[in-house]
Amino acid sequence: MNGFEGIYHGFSIALEPQNLMWCFVGVTIGNLVGVLPGMGVLSAVSILLPLTFGMKEVPAILMLAGIFYGSQYGGAICSILLNLPCHPPHAVTCLDGYPMTKQGKGGVALGITMMGAAFGAAFGIVQMMFFAPYIAKVAFQFGAPEICSLMLLGLLAGSTLAKGSPLKGVAMTILGLLLGLVGTDINTGVERFTFGMIDLSDGVALVGLALGIFGIAEFLKSVNNTAPVNTAYTNVRMRDMRPSKAEMKEAVFPILRGTLIGSLCSCIPGTGPTIASFVAYAAEKKISKTPEKFGHGMIAGVAAPETSTHSSVQGDFIPTMSLGIPGDAVMALLLGALIIHGITPGPRLIVEHPDIFWGLIASFWIGNLMLIVLNVPMIGVWVKMLMVPYKFLFPSALFFICIGVYADKNSIYDVGVTLFFGIFGYLLLMLKFEPAPILLGFVLGPRFEENFRRALIISRGDMNTFVDRWISATFLSLCVVLVCGQMYVRIKDKAPVPATIFGLAALALVGYLNIYVFGLIVFGIAAKFAIGSMTKKPAASAKPAETPTARIAGE
Amino acid sequence: MISDKHRDYYAGALVFLLGIGTAVMGSTYTVGTLTKMGPGFFPTALGFLMAFMGVLVAAANFLARHKEAAPEINHGGGMQTSPDWRGWGCIIAAVVSFILLAEHAGLVFATFICVFLGCWGDKTARLQDSASLALGISLFGILLFSDILRVQLPAYVGNVPAEILALLGVSLFGYILRAEQATVRDIVYGVCVTAWALAMTLLGFVLFFFAARLFYDLFSSQASNVQIPGFQDIFLISGLLVLGLPLFSGLLRSGANLRIAGPLFGALLMAFSALESGARSLIGNKSQPSTPERLQASGMAVYGLLFYFYVLLMQIFIVRGM
Amino acid sequence: MNSHRRQVLACGALSVAALVCGTPVRAQATYPDRPVHVSLGFSAGSGADILARYYAHQLELLSKQPWIMDNKPGATGNIAVRYVARSEPDGYNVLFVANSNMAGSRYLFKDVPFDSLADFKPIASFAQIAFVLVVAPNSPINSIQELVAKLKAKKDNIAGYTNQTAQLSTELFKQISGAPARAVGYKTAADAMKDITDGTLDFMVLDGTFAAGQVRQGMLKALAVTTAMRSPTFPDTPTMQEAGVAGFEFSPWWAVYVPAKTPQAIADKLEAWMHEIARMPETPKFLETVGSIVNDDTARQADARLRAELPKWEALVKAAGIELQ
After folding, report:
1. End residue of a domain, out of A428, A461, A494
2. Interface confidence (ipTM) of the complex
3. Which of A295, A441, B21, B265 is found 20 to 30 A from C44 (Cα to Cα)?
4. Which pLDDT tens digit goes with each residue over C97-116?
């Protein structure tokens, strides 16, 4: 069955009244859950999973999938309007979305989000229709060294994510990396930094961390101290929400780039929408001609991460459906739902159960259409939310945060974690640190360490594994280009002397910090890559670089 | 509270201490070498790096004699100029009370205290503001999280929940009426709004249900498995929808009338559930249908659709400036 | 003002009326007379959860009361165990738990907030999950003997695992067969799929629920199952003992526990129900879909099983080099 026949078949299934109804139920619940802070997709799907036990397999999977992608539509709302990252993938949208709201362009930001969502999702679905088997193959190219290099690139690109002092940004990235270390070490089973508390052995909850340092810290800062949003702009009519031509123009390329990054991230197992949106934002800032304007309401800073989230969410279904390999926990739940119905997920799912695969794809089209119809008229309502006086808004949000964090793992301990990071985050705000890079380090760090160590075990301790594979080598050379490019820009700009010195120091550190010793190897690798591509014979230039560092590291 | 001049020294010191602490603790695990890493390698390396960053942050502050007056974009009014113990204390107490109460005293009670305390943190909050917000949110919360999303927290603990709720709701309602100095006209108006909205949602519900049924019978050869939800369900759903509306518009300061409708409906709801549980205990039917059964087929569909109706309704109300 | 007071009074009267109506006669009925809460240390939708929900559903039919699943994932399930250990011993708090928590936690974690022997009363151990030892689909190896021979010849082998039970299974396999291998951890089976299918890993012990589809459709080659008897999910795959790894039996099993002070009458009732479910004809059929085998142990057998496993876990945890802090 090729793509066109398949989708025809799929629509005939997805348009059956029962399937249509469940698809609608799924996206609506997803949308509702998306708006609630902290109430994650995972908890929503797991709460509603038992409901599907009595249903047939196709409507069951359509509904559960609907919750997943439906929730992404609601997620941006609180990020943009309230600076409250309801879901980790949308945390980065706060950085530019909230400043836009303060300039009275909250409606525009939401409008752009919708455009990006529609485009990203459509791209993801088309990709799944026609290229699912090929993309599944690409996924199999990504082993530990490739993922490790990609995470390094993400960290380098993102360490200057926030506005303000780059030194402090780097410090916060490291802090995020450190927080990511908490919990049981996957390679040895040793518990690190748990302080004897069994509740921490799974690590710090991402939802709790995000809502603590963004949500509660923000409340502590703003209580009795508010002139947050100019309410003069909140009387939005349909016309005001439509982005102007110039704004559309500004958003087009970020949307395209965001789509590509999202679909790339979705191919790689275990690299879901959260990483995609962070990487998309960082890339956008790096590419932009006016990086200094990021954090002050750049449209690109909203469009790119949002689009990449949606495209990555749709793409996440590819390895799950075509190989039976779940990309993340939600996908594992979907496969669980299939198992209950006696369907064994595996590489032949598309052939053996075309109803499910194509029905699901057709329902993606229908569901996304429903979501846009549901959401566009609501933008005005959401913007109205800003008119609620702050003294009523923040206690309500406080409650939603508490219960949302609880529902994530049904753990009251995580609510305590949220409070702790709220207070800690407020301390950081007082010292003028930007919290966003903490999340970046937290999300990318553990995957970096895990894959770095795994790559070295698999290669029997041979560092060349990062250079011998072309995908990994490409990412590493991009890292080099990034670092050199940044230094060049700094020097060219003739920034004030102390700033330049410390900017340079920071940049050198960025290379140095992320892996402590990788800086040297990165340069060795660049040379090796250049020579290796000409001679085909592995050059030895990387070797001498790593021996002394390895010794240093051992001490 | 902290002067610009010294801020980065403190910042650097904090980063430095965190880094050193991590490095020291990290080095108690097996460190290993670069190619044969132990679990302590990353923490130690990152810890030292972090400490170094701390030194840099402080040093940068020392070297930059005069800070460039960076255009400070005002984020929510900037930082407080003096310690705001009431605000901080209340917010922290709100979360702590939720942590302590949620599992042991039930969701309703925890929500009420949490929102009440949170709201009390604002200097301009009056007692009736806090109380009505807390009442509204806890009702909304129980309907949304306990009844629809089925969060694993008990709605209430113990065996007399509905009665206490009813008592609480009614007395609060009475208090709010007094505090708002509501006139008879206000109350009549509130009742009308409540009744009207209830009627509209019920109408929408019934229409949708029959449409779905019709649709199903027309297009599907299988026996319809769309069940009629029980009266209690309908009532609860409508309650959820109606409750939010006056609450929301009430908060928009569009007059005391609508603010009354929220608590009024809440009180009605509580009285109803108290009566319902009483009736149930008289009949002697104490078993409740299990979760999957209660969430059967149409129930969920209806919840979902009504949510949308509800928001549209709200939009009409608010945008039209009611 | 007067009218307000009257309203308040009326409201008060209403609430008193509600109070009177609402106070039901609460007689002590037979157990259970209200919903029973089941704590489970895995998130909803996982293989373990699906299994547990099947049993909860059957118990619901037998006891005519709702059985509510409380998923408490976190600390690899130990949070759920701790919760039940500290809950009321009234028969309304039941724990569905895997052996890794009951037998393994005391050796894997430093401060375990419960004592699996003293704090709990066993009801039954009701299911076993087969783990499978798999190799790459195009690998020339077709039996455990060949694998052991190859591993011994090559020395620097690498084996993957995704959780601690699998890690310790690998360790046990290494001990008995004498084959050298270095173990590398993965967060999920999905992460490991690339490395196992392209032969980067020499072998891997995988969760049967996930492996079932991959093995059936030729993405992986199964060499042996870790249970003592053959699994209906993998009918053609021999057990470790059949394949020549003498004395190998190490697989997750599932058991029901209640707090230690629960009345014996309630425990007996629960035990009888569990046996009834185990003997239902649909039970093995359902369990097969999640890669599990029915166990029909009595409470005493379940207890013996746990006590027999404790030294095994202790030795393996030491051998695997998992350090406690």
Report:
1. A461
2. 0.77
3. A441
4. 888 888 888 887 777 778 88
